[in-house]
Amino acid sequence: MRLDQEEESQNIEDRRGFRVSRGVAGGGIGTIAVVLIALFFGVDPSILLQGNVQETNVPQTSLPPSQRSGGEDEMRQFVARVLGSTERTWTNIFEAGGRTYEKPTLVLFSDAVQSACGFAQAASGPFYCGPDHKVYIDLSFYRDLRQRFQAPGDFAQAYVIAHEVGHHVQNLLGIMNKVQASQSRATNENQANALSVRLELQADCLAGIWANSAHRDRNILEQGDVEEGLNAAAQIGDDRMQKRARGHVVPEGFTHGSAEQRVQWFRRGLESGELKQCDTFSGRPIS
């Protein structure tokens, strides 16, 4: 990727090296938004809904900012540039539609973190929390992306952030609230899961719109980048995730979409660059 023309976002909250410990659980802090969104990589939502925590400025496994390696600083710069690129794209798109884009904050954390959606561990993967308008990521996840999910490359890493920002766009447009309301009326788990799939596939499509716009305006993509992104979308499809974890596939349990679906919708946004192409909530079945 070529990010030299992208300004670093100032909306980075660096909590790496800060210890998070549990406090007394206080019910009701978990939200449907976490269940729908924070499971980007197919992890049980219960680990995100485990009560209140306390966060202190005592370094644990990660070093404080002043003692971090150059590699860690480079990764922070990378995600800041990617976030800045999404800010530029979505600000322009919202302005064209007569709206104002409220920029999200990206929180870097180590091992565990407290969000407005509750307590989250790094094992949950990157996630978006609607109530506080923040994207959360432990940068060690990118190692897992390369090694565990076999999805290397800087554009694959950028896609992860763009997907979570896509959820923020859905939140600003009121889509998330509508999905939550529909889920509350669902008569069974399969119906609720189907709504979650549509939400996630739309976020994939919105991530594609960002890449289309940024490349059209600032030529950010290099040879092989598109393939990296599509491979990442495929590797985190529910079918492949379930196959890795269970050895078999249970379509009724899909919450994010199959590998084929995720590739299709990311590609749709990437190739069209048009919001109208990201309607995953129409009455027709998802292909």
If you had to describe this structure to a student in words, what would you say it looks like?
This protein is α/β, with parallel strands linked by helices and about 290 residues long. The chain has one domain (about 10-280). About 45% of the residues lie in helices and about 10% in strands. The strands form three sheets. A four-stranded mixed sheet has the order 1-4-8-7. It has a two-stranded antiparallel ribbon with strand order 2-3. A two-stranded antiparallel sheet has the order 5-6. The longest helix has 30 residues, at about 190-220.
Q: Based on DSSP secondary structure assignment, what is the total number of beta strands?
A: 8
- Biggest sheet, strands in spatial order? 1-4-8-7
Q: pLDDT under 50 segments (min length 5)?
A: 23-63
Radius of gyration: 18 Å
In short:
The chain is α/β, with parallel strands linked by helices and 287 residues long. The protein is built from nine helices and eight strands.
Helices and strands, with pairings:
Elements: E1 12-14, E2 19-22, H1 32-38, E3 53-56, H2 70-96, E4 105-108, E5 112-115, E6 118-121, E7 127-129, E8 134-137, H3 141-147, H4 154-172, H5 175-185, H6 189-218, H7 225-235, H8 238-246, H9 259-272
Helix pairs in contact: 2-4, 4-6, 4-7, 5-6, 6-9, 7-9
What keywords describe this structure?
287 residues, alpha/beta, four-stranded mixed β-sheet, two-stranded antiparallel ribbon, 47% helix
